[in-house]
Design a protein that fits this description.
EC number: 1.11.1.24
Pfam family, one: AhpC-TSA
CATH architecture: 3-Layer(aba) Sandwich
Number of domains: 1
CATH superfamily: Glutaredoxin
Largest sheet: 7 strands, mixed
Shape: globular
Strand content: 25-35%
Enzyme class: oxidoreductase
Low-confidence stretches: none
Subunit structure: Monomer.
Number of strands: 9
Family: Belongs to the peroxiredoxin family. BCP/PrxQ subfamily.
């Protein structure tokens, strides 16, 4: 699985959101997008990360950024996650992992000292032309959004 680099074309996709609507990356052309992949809705680390994005969403949207979260969860679970934690940005379902793989966000990783196949917590900033501006792999759930906000010069 190859990892994306800044300057690469961001792989286009259409996924289903928590309300069973189709969402396409192409529909966000002309805007900067933060696309983040997380292992599983409703888990402690993923909840922390999603709530951090929620809490910083105002500052991000003021700067013209759109936030999209992607997991392998089904829309019904994403709906529960959104409602439980008052998440106000789209959560997208990639049950087949095709989009995860296209972005290099699924593959071998180390988990508690063992090598396993799984979702690699990753974040991408995509520029208005659909090119990868930032590709961050193996990010930590805690503190990641603050680091991203700082790197983007938003804080």
């Amino acid at each position: 699985m190859s990892k994306l680099q800044p300057g690469d074309a961001a792989p286009d996709f259409t996924l289903t959101d928590a309300d069973d609507n189709e969402v396409s990356l192409e529909s966000f052309r002309g805007r900067r997008v933060i696309l983040y992949f997380y292992p599983a809705a409703m888990t402690p680390g993923c909840t922390k990360q999603a709530c951090d994005f929620r809490d910083n969403l105002g500052a991000l949207t003021e700067r013209g950024l759109v936030v999209l979260g992607v997991s392998k969860d089904k829309p019904a679970k994403l709906r529960q996650f959104r409602e439980r934690d008052a998440l106000t940005f789209p959560l997208l379902s990639d049950t087949g992992l095709d989009v995860h793989k296209a972005y290099g966000a699924y593959g071998e990783k180390t988990n508690y000292g063992r090598t396993v196949m799984g979702v690699i917590r990753s974040t991408f900033v995509i520029d208005p032309d659909g090119k990868v501006e930032k590709a961050l792999y193996n990010v930590k759930a805690t503190g990641h959004v603050a680091r991203l906000v700082k790197e983007l010069g938003i804080s």
